[in-house]
Amino acid sequence: MNVLSCSINTLKGLYDISGVEVGQHFYWQIGGFQVHGQVLITSWVVIAILLGSATIAVRNPQTIPTGGQNFFEYVLEFIRDVSKTQIGEEYGPWVPFIGTMFLFIFVSNWSGALLPWKIIQLPHGELAAPTNDINTTVALALLTSVAYFYAGLTKKGLGYFGKYIQPTPILLPINILEDFTKPLSLSFRLFGNILADELVVVVLVSLVPLVVPIPVMLLGLFTSGIQALIFATLAAAYIGESMEGHH
Amino acid sequence: MKNVTDSFVSLGHWPSAGSFGFNTDILATNPINLSVVLGVLIFFGKGVDLLDNRKQRILNTIRNSEELRGGAIEQLEKARSRLRKVETEAEQFRVNGYSEIEREKLTLINSTYKTLEQLENYKNETIQFEQQRAINQVRQRVFQQALRGALGTLNSCLNNELHLRTISANIGMLGTIKEITD
């Protein structure tokens, strides 16, 4: 009897160790919708980090930038550079959009990789990077779709739809399909990468809690930065593509 | 055996869900690895001096601009002083030119005056000369008229007796003249 309970305990323990929570959500009921509360909480934290640091950085601007101001100017320059390379000469109005995308995704990803979210315990599910949830990435990808449609329509009016039959009308179905695959690929790429990163780290931590996960975590930092850059670059590229004149 | 498994279980123990709270399990919440990762990040982030480079670049740009500005101001100053010099020279030239013109005018007026005077003199001389000639002519004419009248008178009323009387009177007159002259 004793031996049995002992072995049951052992099994339970082993199960607990390898029990990684996926698909567990902390649901909030808002107006008939079930929302993922943990994602909202981490998003708010990310937004607060971004707004707070930006406010602190630009509070006392100097001619010769130092510290935070220098850093934020560098980030802005980087974003402008990305937008300029992808969109072209008329990149100016799109810098805020691209910058928002890049900064939000980047800080989200890195918050998942750097902040000890798991210290805070939720009734259900657990806190992680907001981009760890498909809803966030789909929202971002749909915003990108709306943005590139808006960019094309304001630039060329209804003539924008001429690009669907651009090389030949035979490609019409593929061109229409592209409008669906773009947000799909954007959202799935980001979601998959971040979820995979975090899962690998969680699994490794549950198996070997110390030292071993560190290289993977560093790799996760690298890939999440790259993913943010890819998302921003692709969004800018789509906007640029819909704005460029056809010859 | 039980102790070992218990410790093993507690090692992987997940606090049961249900309410908000803090997970105090150091191994599960993973702060050690996170701090190591953060430390590595900060260490290598410090090594990359993008921001320092940027600051240095901005400083250099500002310094260059200052230098260029200084140079430009200097050049402007130089150009201004040259302009001033040229202006004064132009002023001098203008003044000189005016005085030259004034002098020229005066000399011209003077020479014209002289010419005019000379012409006046010529005119006066000519007038005098003409006058003189006219007077002479008149005189001559009057003289001829008188002579002709006298000759007529003489021819009409000269007879021998008168002739002789005249001659004798003249001889007498000449004689007295001779006496006087002697």
From TrEMBL, chain B:
Bilayer topology term: Single-pass membrane protein
| Presence of keyword Disulfide bond | no
Gene Ontology biological process? proton motive force-driven ATP synthesis
Task: Please give the chief subcellular localization of this protein.
Answer: membrane
Q: Which domain of life is it from?
A: Eukaryota
Molecular function, one GO term: proton transmembrane transporter activity
Membrane-crossing segments per the record:
32-51
The record's section on CDD domains has:
ATP-synt_Fo_b (cd06503)
Name of this protein: ATP synthase subunit b, chloroplastic
| Family designation | Belongs to the ATPase B chain family.
Record's keyword terms, sorted: ATP synthesis, CF(0), Coiled coil, Hydrogen ion transport, Ion transport, Membrane, Transmembrane, Transmembrane helix, Transport
Q: What does this protein do?
A: F(1)F(0) ATP synthase produces ATP from ADP in the presence of a proton or sodium gradient. F-type ATPases consist of two structural domains, F(1) containing the extramembraneous catalytic core and F(0) containing the membrane proton channel, linked together by a central stalk and a peripheral stalk. During catalysis, ATP synthesis in the catalytic domain of F(1) is coupled via a rotary mechanism of the central stalk subunits to proton translocation.
